[in-house]
Prior knowledge:
Radius of gyration: 14 Å
Distance between the termini: 43 Å
Oligomer: single chain
Strand content: under 5%
CATH class: Mainly Alpha
Number of domains: 1
Mean pLDDT: 97
CATH architecture: Alpha Horseshoe
Number of helices: 6
CATH superfamily: Tetratricopeptide repeat domain
Low-confidence stretches: none
Shape: globular
Helix content: over 70%
Amino acid sequence: xxxxxxxxxxxxxxxxxxxxxxxxxxxxxxxxxxxxxxxxxxxxxxxxxxxxxxxxxxxxxxxxxxxxxxxxxxxxxxxxxxxxxxxxxxxxxxxxxxxxxxx
Length: 103
């Protein structure tokens, strides 16, 4: 069974599992299913604003989709959450990607 099928199967038992949704979104990105990946990342962050890793991947995806303004907004939201959670590592990664896009 391929990864996408396996993750979908696991999500049937735990439909709101952010980890599984994030993993599925990453697999969708690998296969070019950007719209599906975007929906999942936005679903995760709509439910759990503290799922910090999804901010980075969603913003990177939006960059790839030529939606720079939206990407910037998600980087900014992610940096604010990372700072609020005192997650310096995530903050640094988000800020680096943000600065690369903006400057």
